[in-house]
Amino acid sequence: MAQERSAQELYRDDPQRADAEVFGRRGELEGASLQAMQAAVGASIPAAATMQAGTLPAAFARPGALPLLTMPGKAALLLHDERPLCAETPEVLLDEAVTSAPAMFIRNNGGIPPEVAEPLAWRFTVEGKVQAPLSLTVGDLQSRFPVVTRQLQLECGGNGRAFHQPAARGNPWGNGAISNGEWTGVRLRDVLLAAGLRPTARFTGHYGADPHLSGEAGQVSIARGMRIEKALDEDTLLAFGLNGAPLPHLHGAPLRLVVPGWPGSLSQKWLTRISVRDVPHDGPGMGGTSYRVPLHPVIPGSAQDGRDFVELESMPVRSILTSHAHGMHLPAGTRHLDLRGAAWAGDLSVQAQHVSLDFGATWRKMALFPAANRHAWQRWQGRVTVPADGYYEIWYRATDSAGRMQPHQAANWNPQGYGANPTSRAAVFIGRALAAGA
């Protein structure tokens, strides 16, 4: 009993020391070392022979438990912050081709404005480097421009931040700051072309009605912008509907931008104004290290001012496992795991999805299905065999259409933790736990 408690506490409190003591100089799990590791995880480890030194068990590697969001109309999301309200979707709640509104993650930088009585009367403007500035209501958009519906991925720029070492600033998102809703609206391109872009039109700036947390009138909580090429992408929408219903207020009603494949901070909720510019936008959330990553690798944990940084645009390839929750216990005698999940790669597509059950020694290719349309995620599935009861880790990684695979560890460290997309691991237990002191 004492040995088991000691091993567990050592791995939880000092993983590096635990790794050194368990693996020792030979870097192999055998004898007393194997017993210590099995005591730590609480089960036998059938694939122990391929577990290499430096492998912190997934059972201890994920961030600590978060409180659950309790809000009418929303699922039991993982609550990161109440002010501003930020909540992450557990991967198993994303086990659907189209993400339901209750399961969508929540990310805010400011407060939530009051609901409006007449959504169709909500007005926004297009100004700046255009021939004819526009002032349009949601009703105008619906009557003047073609209405389209697209499945589109929407991902927080900090998704995966928890995997950066050392820790970066901001909410420690795992993999669940992602959704794939069916959005209805009009193409931003059509509206910008109706306004008449001037030759100097190069960038956009976006403004919303979300109040600043300070409560100070006129203070902007966030106002980001993008290159005009992305604004003219056929999948960049001014959205007023979600999954066949009116857009929920919490997710930006009556009108929001949806800029798929790029950081979700560009998808301004409660949209009031778009400014077309000849220079990059300079609103809150732009410049410095905000939504920007190093052009060249920096020393993890070092002070950075963003001088040698570039905008984070197309999000990196990532995958999620939606069929099995991390820490899941399955009945004794289970010999097959039917795995499912999703994968996406910003502006690119996914060309392959692989899983491993032996700590990365071998990988099995999963069936990968086409996206419903460009900028939608791709579902994947496959069956794997397990030889015995015990502790397993499901490692899962995707490869994008440019041949870039999720790395073994989070790369390109930056102070605000953007773009971390390492191979993910979920612990699964089959059968009963080891007896105390085993």
Distance between the termini: 8 Å
Quantity of strands, as a count: 22
**Which runs of at least 5 residues are low in confidence (pLDDT < 50)?**
1-6
Helix fraction bin = 10-25%
Q: How many whole angstroms does the radius of gyration measure? A: 23 Å
Shape: elongated
Mean pLDDT: 93
Q: Structural class given helices, strands, pairing?
A: alpha+beta
Query: Number of helix segments?
Result: 7
Reported for the largest beta sheet, the result is: 5 strands, antiparallel
Secondary-structure element string: HHHHEEEEHEEHEHEEEEEEEEEEEEEEE
What is the quaternary state of this protein? Answer: single chain
- The fraction of residues in strands falls at 25-35%
Give a concise summary:
The protein is α+β, with helices and mostly antiparallel strands and 438 residues long.
Description:
By secondary structure, the protein is of the alpha+beta class. Helix content is 13%, strand content 28%. It has 7 helices and 22 strands. Strands 5, 6, 8, 9 and 10 form a 5-stranded antiparallel beta sheet that branches. The chain has a 5-stranded mixed beta sheet with strand order 15-22-21-17-18, with no helix packed on it. A hairpin with a 2-residue loop joins β8 (237-242) and β9. The N and C termini lie close together (8 Å).
Give the topology, please.
Layout: H1 2-13, H2 15-23, H3 31-41, H4 58-61, E1 78-82, E2 85-88, E3 123-128, E4 134-137, H5 138-144, E5 147-155, E6 178-187, H6 188-195, E7 203-208, H7 228-231, E8 237-242, E9 245-246, E10 256-258, E11 271-277, E12 292-294, E13 309-311, E14 318-321, E15 328-330, E16 336-344, E17 350-356, E18 364-365, E19 367-368, E20 378-385, E21 390-400, E22 424-430
Parallel strand pairs: 3-11, 15-22
Antiparallel strand pairs: 1-2, 3-4, 5-6, 6-8, 7-11, 8-9, 8-10, 12-13, 14-16, 16-20, 17-18, 17-21, 19-20, 21-22
Helix pairs in contact: 1-2, 1-3
